[in-house]
Design brief:
It contains 7 helices and 6 strands. By secondary structure, the protein is α+β, with helices and mostly antiparallel strands. β5 and β6 form a beta hairpin.
């Protein structure tokens, strides 16, 4: 394993713009200044187009998602739930999954980093996710020098991207189709990875039919010519789940 302490090697993370050009990493770290800044934005937010100009980190996105779960007002004659007059709780599995995804990834990485550093995470009342995000923010430079920084980036990007798609949907109508279930190549432990995200179909404002189906987690796209094959796979997966 290369020791980057005191050295300035190349940034080990991929770049979307001019991917073949080598960017120098920050001295002693494994990433360039741009990726270090992006890691901070992934954790604590930034005023960008993705969030409509609002400064939303992972803790704030989790709170936004929590507010969406019971956002639907009940219609005439519909019973209220849990003694809340005039309101009913709307179960939205894709929102609940995104909330759980944030909590799992934040606490998983917080625990791993604390263990490797010989530290102990503190409590912060009932809002522990905010405290853990603050802890991760305070250890950004240390994380940027670790060999697993690529995995860390990928997971934080995925969880933030998934939450933003739900909190800030694009124009038109969108609806959930099914679980993704896309199978990827075996991971470092030798097992095949299966995406647990949700497939969404988006109908543009001026159209009557969707143009494509996209996963909110792995970004796999399914154009119309692939929908029959996709439907067959979804039916097989549902049948297997029922018989399990």
């Amino acid at each position: 394993m290369t020791d980057y302490r005191g050295e300035r090697g190349p940034c080990v993370l991929p770049h979307a713009h001019e991917p073949d050009r080598v960017r120098p990493a920050i001295t002693g770290l494994r990433v360039c200044a741009g990726h270090r800044q992006e890691l901070e934005r992934l954790l604590v937010g930034g005023r960008d187009e993705d969030t409509g100009g609002r400064d939303l980190g992972l803790a704030e996105l989790h709170r936004e998602l929590a507010g969406m779960v019971g956002s639907a007002a009940s219609g005439a004659g519909e019973p209220s739930v849990s003694g809340t007059p005039g309101r009913r709780m709307e179960y939205r599995p894709e929102v609940s999954d995104a909330m759980s995804h944030i909590v799992w990834k934040v606490h998983r990485w917080g625990g791993r980093i604390a263990r490797e550093r010989g530290e102990r995470l503190g409590e912060d009342g009932n809002w522990r996710i905010a405290a853990t995000v603050r802890y991760l923010e305070s250890r950004i430079d240390w994380c940027c020098g670790q060999p697993w920084i690529g995995e860390y980036f990928d997971e934080l990007r995925a969880v933030r991207h998934r939450a933003i798609r739900l909190v800030f949907p694009a124009g038109g109508t969108k609806f959930v189709v099914a679980r993704c279930g896309q199978v990827f190549a075996p991971d470092h432990e030798g097992g095949a990875r299966c995406c647990i995200g949700w497939l969404w179909a988006r109908v543009p404002g001026s159209e009557q039919l969707p143009k494509k189906v996209v996963c909110d987690t792995c970004d796999t796209e399914h154009p119309p010519h692939n929908w029959m094959r996709l439907a067959e796979r979804i039916l097989r997966q549902r049948a297997a789940a029922r018989s399990a």
